## 1
Amino acid sequence: MKVLVNIFALAVLGFPALTLAAPPKCDGELPSPGNGNGTSSEAKFVIDAAKSQLGSSIEGAATDKTGNFYTANFGNDTDKNTIAMLNVDGTLSLAYKDNNNETWFNSIRTMKSGTADGDFVMFAGDVTGHRVVKIEGLASGNPTASDFCKDSKMLQPNDMALSSDGNLYLSGMNYTETSEVGNGDLWWCKADGKAAPLDKLHRANGIEVSSDNKYLYLSEAVNVGGAVTENRIMRYEIDAETGVKLENKAAKKTVFVDFKKLDQTEATDIDGMRCDKDGNLFVTRNGLGAITVFSPDGSLKSNITVPGMKSVKNLEFSGADGKVLHIVGNCDKAEGEDEATPAKGCIATWTHEAEGLEWSQL
Ligand SMILES: *[C@@H]1O[C@H](CO)[C@@H](O)[C@H](O)[C@H]1NC(C)=O
Ligand SMILES: *[C@@H]1O[C@H](CO)[C@@H](O)[C@H](O)[C@H]1NC(C)=O
Ligand SMILES: *[C@@H]1O[C@H](CO)[C@@H](O)[C@H](O)[C@H]1NC(C)=O
Ligand SMILES: *[C@@H]1O[C@H](CO)[C@@H](O)[C@H](O)[C@H]1NC(C)=O
Ligand SMILES: *[C@@H]1O[C@H](CO)[C@@H](O)[C@H](O)[C@H]1NC(C)=O
């Protein structure tokens, strides 16, 4: 999401107990990130500025099993209380509009529900309402919504991750010129809807659960005097009792990726983060027009560029086979275009060889 400068969001999902061949070590040192040389490839627009009916607050990304893709802010910039659907046939439409016009959806997740094929519920994070809304009946075109989880002490939520057993993890930030611990937060919405704070840190944004439900990834950025000086991905161990594992009563975490060490792009914010079903982590770099892909051991796999969309915000796999990575963000302005005109919300895609985690669990 964009508040003052660039505030972004991310979310994820959790999954079944497929153990990875070589699980990352959970204590002590993680393998250092790889030294580059992954493959690089380009994403292409499916909704460009000319076709866009999406506002500049486009954010959040989710799929259903049919391969329809969802993102927030259908319409113009005042319509932050809406969820758009990009039908698998390529058409855009309004999927849901909240009754409260102050609602600001910035993150979305979907989860299998019911017994019929394709039945699902959507969780949508509302920044201004400090709540998660549960939306049912989307597949039948007759959506109904209820508050699932709410706490006015949450900073936002900015983005969300969902484990396959229905636990939600929420990130938030308070953008300040110089950040301190507490300008970012991590919350847990238990499967029964109860909210609990888990950690405080510098600005928190992208968030995802590993494909085996074991780890929680959360991005953290540091500001000093208006400049962004750090961007890293922290990793927590999920714990059924306490949300994340604790050490001396504080959330225990390790550095999974540090962009200062990796490629000196620490001044560019991490935004959305999502896993494929094998646990590879896809990370948007909002401002660089790129998605950086990491293996479950933290090594760099590849870099996907998104020409025409420097402000890449969030992403999720969708499409009929669940392998099409949909990337949402703002289309770059045309040369000479009025500064005051809001940028359009756009969608680009890139095809993977594996299904996304969310799609595979629906
Ligand atoms: C990366 O690619 C360059 C150019 O092809 C090569 O010189 C270098 O050895 C490669 N590094 C690794 C770690 O594979
Ligand atoms: C934005 O859309 C709303 C309806 O959703 C409409 O009332 C409003 O006039 C529109 N604003 C602009 C600037 O087009
Ligand atoms: C919501 O609607 C009220 C009443 O029409 C209006 O005063 C307010 O400005 C609107 N808020 C937003 C965020 O559009
Ligand atoms: C955000 O940070 C500013 C500056 O430190 C502080 O004054 C404000 O109370 C903070 N807001 C929240 C909601 O924590
Ligand atoms: C990924 O691509 C972006 C845009 O070209 C570039 O700025 C960044 O350094 C690349 N990162 C890696 C790890 O190659």
## 2
Amino acid sequence: MEARVNDGRDISGDFGGSDVRRAARRDEAVRAAVEQGLLGPGTPIVGLLDVAGIRESAAALRAAFDAVTAPGTPVLHAFAVKATPLVPVLRLLHEEGIGAEVASPGELALARAAGVPAGRTVLDSPAKTPDELREALTLGIAVNADNPQELGRIDALMAEGPSASPVGVRVNPQVGGGSIEALSTATATSKFGVALRDEGAREWVVRAYLDRPWLTRLHAHTGSQGIPTALMSEGVRETYALAEEINERAGRRQVDTLDIGGGLPVNFASDETVPTYAEYARVLREAVPGLFDGRYGLVTEFGRSLLAKHGTIVARVEYAKSAGGRPIAVTHAGVQVATRTVYAPGSWPLRVAAYDGKGQPKEGADVVQDVAGPACFAGDLLAVGRALPLLEQGDYAAVLDTGAYYFAHHYAYNSLARPAVYGFTEAEDGAGGGHGGGNAGTAFATVRAAQTTEEIVAEAGGAYADALTGGFLRGETGAV
Ligand SMILES: *Cc1c(COP(=O)(O)O)cnc(C)c1O
């Protein structure tokens, strides 16, 4: 299919119509953001989120599991909040039938602020404090214990009084890692969960369940970027086999719900959505048919795959220069919004698409160039030696597929401000762009305002300016 979209010059493979439409919406949003003044010399960087795209991904996830599960099977899709920790995004997903997986008091607060009910929230994290555990058990949030010491803390809290929280144990099936070491959760020595193949561990887990009738869930999260679906499903199969073993030894269906984690990889090389949720669900059903026959409720925890392709960072080219014969576009998007890509470009390459000063896709022959960020270190480069239409002063560089783990994860290097994030949608007639011609244009909503310099100063100890030069007080922090 001919794709007339600005794709960062990396289009490959066959496209579904929805992928092409998403890319076309992105082009339109960049143009409208410039036209409506969200982007310009005074606001040289924004994050954009495609509301229709997020809804489509949520619907695709629900449909994929509906298609493989027995009718009536309870399935909770809990969005891994860490992927895009923005309250309006969590609210949108909640409206689309997606709950929240949280891993810190902050993430739990975000989910609650978005109105995600306790019954649709799951708490994982390898370092939960007693206070966090108590809060979760009081609220009735599902908890997955990471290790024996944590289970001991939960024992003590359970002894204090009943809780509505479903509780499980996280296991590491140790099926092996993927292509990105830092993201591989199921290696032999991963820090997460109870390492199932270690000596005595499996028996310890089974006994833990037999001793605690309130342990009704079993959790594993073995996928992530760089992990093939076949390896992911192997992890799920191991977890399922353990649940079957526990239930057989218990002589009842004690484990009633399997939490299979998230981790579907995202294709960052083109606009194609691959693998799809439907493909993963089919791979899972092949590998673990018993998982879907209605005997187990299911929880999933997808993050990156729900949001990545719906976010775009757009940054103005402040200066265009050349060094050693290579053109360099100095933009406002760098390490502060694309931290992983700048520090580990081999693992996290991103597409960059070129737009002109009006936000129109840039025409012209490809030129090998570097796309740099604003930070004061030499490695702050979004792309090195990338063939793109030549970026010139006042143009815009769009960094694609950045809806998860990118612009929402600000890194405060050089005290660069967190950029504003806007959601966009096709406007109803009368709202939004209104540039005539039948299409009412693109309308924007603020998801997060840009950080102000006053906020930067306040967050950098502005209220304690003389803390180190004034008198020190023993036993007091001097907090105001
Ligand atoms: C990070 C994480 C997820 C989500 O992973 P994605 O790769 O973003 O889908 C799910 N569950 C747990 C426990 C996680 O730590």
